[in-house]
Amino acid sequence: MHRLSEGITHRAWYRLLPAAWLAFAAGCGGLEAGAEASEAPSTQERVPQEAGPITPSAPGALPPAEAAPAPQARPWFHRVGGPQDDLGTGLAVDGSGHVSLVWLSTPRQDADRAPVEGEQLALSLARHDPEGQRLWTREFPRNRVDAPRVVASPGGELFLSGNAFLYDIDFGLGAASDGFLVKFSPEGEPLWQRRVGQKVYATVADASGGVFVAAEEWTPDGLLPVLAHHDAQGAFVWTRQLDVVERGTELRAAARMPSGQWLLAGRLEGVLTVDGQRFGAPGASSLLLLAFGGEGRLAWGKAWQGVDAHVSGLEVDPAGGGVLVGEFSGDLTWGDSRLSGPGAFVLSSGAEGVERWARALPCGQAPAAPAVTLDGEGSVAAVCGDTLSQYSPEGEQRNEQVLTPGECSEGNCPVVATALDFVPGQGLALTGLQRHGDAVNGDQEAFLRLLAP
């Protein structure tokens, strides 16, 4: 299966949206169908509605009239980019419901297409309020940057990470190279930056303005996984290197557990020993799940030998269980479920990796690396390519829908989603790419949209 991006989008450390918002079949499923989705109002057209004051009744007064229902969230949509190819690679929602987006802009010229006027090579970061109004945008010229992603602290601080290989990139704090991590204020000002490895693959914000990072260094002996927890000022809370792993190992998904432990998931080739515990088997692929405590020591771990899988997304439910999405080949047995590949999956685990439920994840006509998010009650939303799927905490499928364009005058605008997150009290935010026109002369733009119930 072709993977559009190796980017893994991780969400804030908690979820506040009730599970009922996930029942989109009669709500956002209708909004996504046909013209209603494409006619969703822009942020400039909306007028905020506020409920009137509630006053107590005087003794003996007649019962008050029935209270007006609370204003309903409304869907919104932004086309992002310019004449070049644009791709949304990550988004994050903070504690106040603000949505931040990172996207890449790449000139269109290749073997089949000619340059166009005004195209540019850039990485951009933007922040929106919960109703979709853009608050600011920062644009950074670039050469080569791989899979940038963004996570948000509860207070609105942002952590931008990615891989600047061959050429540096400047975010206002001097040259950033290799695997970079940059912290921004809620107003978009760069605060500090760190090199966190040859390549960085996962970042997770903590509850106090710090961040956990999973990266790797390249050594003559092989790949060296690196884990680090930085405090709000960028200093190490702890850091550690694991043993050298065989090529093909991909420990690239991470999440924060309610206990304060850090959960790491991915693909293991061969054997890895961590704090005296041995995982995997020589010459075999395994699905690996490791939990690290506050000082970086292994709390527990589990490996599923013979599983040929690539994990692209990981979230933790309120009870501390994990939900993983990715792609796999061969057969995958998980609990009472047996999946046959190649294809995409969503897996749910309980405490210390106990197998719960598994589902094959549909990817539609435009497959890409799957992404996942959870609401505050553990309900699951996963996206793969152009298809959004939703499940109860117990794995019951609640909805499946093909994503239609948010705005399209060309008649055919394929959509590929790459990241998603819940906006408390509003709905589900999505980013990715939307193509306008044919493959040679058309325009590929990033998008940011809200699917409201």
Outline the structure in words:
The protein has 453 residues and is mostly beta strands. It has a domain of 104 residues. Helices cover 2% and strands 52% of the residues. A hairpin with a 6-residue loop joins β29 and β30. It comes from Cystobacter fuscus (strain ATCC 25194 / DSM 2262 / NBRC 100088 / M29). This is Lipoprotein.
N-C termini distance: 31 Å
Low-confidence stretches: 1-65
Beta-strand residue percentage: over 45%
Largest sheet: 4 strands, antiparallel
- What is the number of helices? 2
Total count of strands: 30
CA-based gyration radius: 22 Å
Mean pLDDT figure: 86
Estimate percent helicity.
under 10%
Given the helix and strand composition, which structural class is it?
A: mainly beta
Region (Disordered): 35-81
Biased composition (Low complexity): 57-75
Protein name: Lipoprotein
Secondary structure elements and their pairing?
Blueprint: H1 28-32, H2 35-38, E1 76-80, E2 85-93, E3 99-106, E4 122-128, E5 134-141, E6 146-152, E7 158-170, E8 175-184, E9 190-197, E10 199-205, E11 211-219, E12 222-230, E13 236-241, E14 250-256, E15 262-274, E16 277-292, E17 298-305, E18 308-316, E19 322-329, E20 331-334, E21 337-340, E22 343-349, E23 355-361, E24 371-374, E25 380-384, E26 387-391, E27 397-402, E28 415-423, E29 427-436, E30 443-451
Antiparallel strand pairs: 1-30, 2-3, 3-4, 4-5, 6-7, 7-8, 8-9, 10-11, 11-12, 12-13, 14-15, 15-16, 16-17, 18-19, 19-22, 20-21, 22-23, 24-25, 25-26, 26-27, 28-29, 29-30
Organism: Cystobacter fuscus (strain ATCC 25194 / DSM 2262 / NBRC 100088 / M29)
Biased composition (Low complexity): 57-75
InterPro entries: Quinoprotein_ADH-like_sf (IPR011047)
